[in-house]
Amino acid sequence: MSGIIELSDAIKQFTLDQDKIMTPEETVRNFKKKTAKLNMQILEYTKRIDNGRLDIPVYFSVCGKDARKITGTNKQMGKGATPVQSEASAVMELAERFSFFSFKKNQANFKDGAFPDFEKIAIPFDLIAASVHEDAKNAEEAKEFFNLLSFEWTEGYNITKKAPVLVPFDWFYAINEFNGPSAGNCKEEAIMQGISEIIERHVCSIISEKKLSVPLIRPESVKDEIVCGMLEKYKKAGIELFISDFSLDTGIPTVGVLAYDPSTFPEKSEIVWTAGTAPDPVKALSRALTEIAQLAGDFNTGSNYLASGLPKLTSLDQTDFIRKSGKSVDIEDLPDISDNNIRIEIENAISCLDKLGMEIILIETTHKDLGIPAFYTIIPGARFRERALNTTLAMFCAKLIIEKFPADMALPIIMQMDKKLQDRYYLKFYAGMCLYTLEEYEEALAFFKKAMELGPNSQDEASIYSYMAQCLKEQEKYHEALEILEKGMESDDERTDILNLMGFCQFKLKRHEKAIESFEKLIKLDPSSAIDYANIGSNYRELGDRDNAIRYYKKALEIDPKITFALENILKLGGDLSDNE
3-class DSSP state for residue 173? Predict the structure, then answer.
């Protein structure tokens, strides 16, 4: 195996609001120079998109047609204390995503096979178990089923142990998904960013899940000119900020920031809660403050952001454990692993995590033609909100079995697992999912009911209710489906699949006002859901409200021009398509 990653000295040349080996102007020039040489359209243009109220710039990098095909997105957002840093952030986000998905879609990067085929050179099984927070005994129980699964193996490098290793890429992607890709002006920048992102997600997951009351950071303890300037901008705009120490026991500084605007919440703004991790606690705060600006839409535009590391909080009561922690510290009380040499910062981070028994595995994803250093960072045992939460190795194996095998092949394996492990609610659930796929709706419903009787965790409880309702919907039992969906909403009122299904059933029952309410709740949670704008349009159409029907169909097409029924309905309603051509 090759794949050895050697760190070099990477001396910081720019330290204004982020720590880089070159200025943001050079970063943007370098990116545009590299993409101009490619026979591909990667970047269409960059654009500042904030309205200036906060005066903390936010940029879009809009994908060219070839980047759109690879990444599946139209644009990335960038953040920074200055316009050029925000633009640099936006183009590097594009480099990161383009490199990662180019790597993921290139089958030449992978070898297919099961764990026993590669065990001698593969990541140790205990790290596989750690990735889903499983203890050794239970992991061994499930190992025979893990060994049935074929994975896409790729070369990685355990930078903690300084050893090449084969990694089951799709196993970790199922857990981490798009957490851990990074790009930088040099490999050290990219690696430090990837480690920081994983640790940020890790501590955020623990704090939000357990509602930990962590110390507030006294803003007056911050002396950095750039950060003080941003704090003053928030104060001038009337934004309430609560700055917290999220570092926990990692030894790596993470700063959480909760922000809201008393003058516009909830009519035109949301509570925004996010965090930043960096070797220097002041730079961690800087990252969090610029992230707030990126997510908040200047706190006066009615925009909705998508939650990631931390959940959305919708009322001030939900924020009490953060705002009223009763403990406070100065910014210099946080851990600090910073150095003028990024290589040393990485080594410090490795040492901190090694003390916690956490190893860092790197997969290089640098695109050979683009040539901007990029990596995918994996830290088995790191936690992710809503991913590998309250799970087990057997549960994750079962999940992948139904994804990797046709339903008629997966079902007997799930039933075999059920016979051996007994009374695991998730195996009844996955058996039900197989039967649902096979259109055996009554039998599937019976398995979902058995799963519910075995006491699922709250997250899976909502999923089970959703599938129960799907079975009823397929049998056109819309009233019964809605009764089940109400229970699902009690388990988790932010499940977009449940809201979509509620809207569908209400539409079928001609309860169009109620259907609109459901779809509107959904798009508030996921403003990128084009199909649900179109669904609102269809309900307005049925109510005879032509103008609103056309308006929502157009919104759907702005996000996804491929929704043909929206286009067809605009034409039927005599609407003007000039805005969507």
Answer: helix
**361-364 vs 328-329, strand pairing mode:** unpaired
Helices (H), 11-154: 24-36, 65-71, 83-105, 115-118, 125-131, 136-146
Q: How far apart are CA 506 and CA 182, in angstroms?
A: 43
Burial of 248 (0-12, 13-18, 19+ CB in 10 A): middle
Residue with tokens 């220097």: 280
The CA distance from 318 to 312, in Å, is 10
The CA radius of gyration of the chain, in Å to the nearest whole number, is: 25
Which H helix or E strand runs over 168? Answer: strand 163-168
Mean pLDDT of the chain: 94
By the 8 A CB rule, do 81 and 314 touch?
no
58-67 pLDDT, tens per residue?
Answer: 999 999 999 9
The pLDDT of residue 580: 46
- Residue 223 in tokens: 């002396």
* Torsion sign across C-alpha atoms 117, 119, 125, 131: negative
Low pLDDT (below 50) residues in the chain: 388, 580-581
Q: Which amino acid is at 352?
A: C
pLDDT in tens, 182-241: 999 999 999 999 999 999 999 999 999 999 999 999 999 999 999 999 999 999 999 999
Query: Using CA of residue 463, residue 464, residue 467, residue 472, what is the dihedral sign?
Result: negative
Please give the span between the terminal C-alpha atoms of the chain, in angstroms, as a whole number: 52
Alpha-carbon distance of 513 to 536, in angstroms, equals 9
SS3 content of the chain, % helix, strand, coil (to 5): 55, 15, 35
